[in-house]
Amino acid sequence: MQALLERCLEAINQVVLGKPQQVRLALTCLLAKGHLLLEDLPGMGKTTLSHALADALGLSYQRIQFTSDLLPGDILGTAIFEQQSSTFVFHPGPIFAELVLADEINRATPKSQSALLEAMEEGQVSIEGETRPLPEPFFVIATQNPSSQSGTFPLPESQLDRFLMRISLGYPAAEAEKKLLQQSGQRRQLQQAEPLLSAEQLRLAQQQVQQVQASDALLDYILRLVNATRTQPQFTFGLSPRASLALLSAAKAWAYLAGRAYVIPEDVQQVLPAVVGHRLQEQTAQGQLQGGALTQHLLTTVPAL
């Protein structure tokens, strides 16, 4: 299975150039049954990454363009009355796909953003008094523009907490960008190729990730990291138990990708910035800021053993 996953990583890296760490984190997030938030400036390859994942893994794909006039029914679907049968027939929305791209999620109102909460947490949606299951696997990739840009609505903490990881692609290196200009048709080749992994194989991989072992010493390390955010004064508030579980799940998936059946502290350290960066805030003279520096503080001050 690891060989197949490495082939998927290689194929995606041929499209998303110069970002192997971010690509590996995205696949880790999927294997851990989480959801991914991509925060960056427009044009950095966020949509390209989501397409590449869907193509390499053979997942059904739907894109939702979030705008200020988007309604929850546009995401979930709605029941429409049909005269021929004199009944209401449910027409599923784009949420009923294995990989859903919520593009520019922070350009929609909080009411529309909240339509994703149940889907992301429970793997189901409640519409017209009926609960409808979503496909399995179910993976949401949301893209977000920086809050400093006009026309954005900040995601509430409850919505941010539903994302297992938040990553940023950033500007490519000069060599990678030159290669991008030379191979502008590479993404089309991946779309035309056969998927490298079936949905059944992906579900099996997700089940195997859950069986990766974590020792008591490793769990104590995670607890020390979490407890530091709850007791040290620079943190506005500490990490929740959900964040503890997210950190463990992501570390297991990272270890699984590395071909190991057990987690080591380095696995936790590799995924920590992506898992907890969007869950932490520090108090400054200018107000509350979500701090990437806080994760670095945890890595340098909390002992692994």
Q: Can you give a write-up of this model?
A:
The model is unreliable at 285-289 (pLDDT under 50). The relative contact order is 0.16. This protein has a five-stranded parallel sheet. The chain has a two-stranded antiparallel ribbon with strand order 3-4. The protein has a two-stranded antiparallel ribbon with strand order 6-7. Helix content is 45%, strand content 16%. The chain has 305 residues and is α/β, with parallel strands linked by helices. The protein has helices spanning 2-13, 20-31, 46-57, 72-76, 110-113, 117-122, 157-160, 174-182, 186-192, 199-210, 216-231, 241-257, 265-276, 292-301, and strands spanning 36-39, 61-65, 77-82, 87-92, 99-103, 124-127, 130-133, 139-144, 165-167, 282-284, 287-289. It has two domains: 2-200, P-loop containing nucleotide triphosphate hydrolases (Rossmann fold, 3-Layer(aba) Sandwich); 211-301, Magnesium chelatase subunit I, C-Terminal domain (Helicase, Ruva Protein, domain 3). The longest helix is centred in the C-terminal third of the chain and has 17 residues, at 241-257. Helix 2 packs across helix 12 (241-257), helix 3 (46-57) runs parallel beside helix 9 (186-192) and helix 10 packs across helix 12.
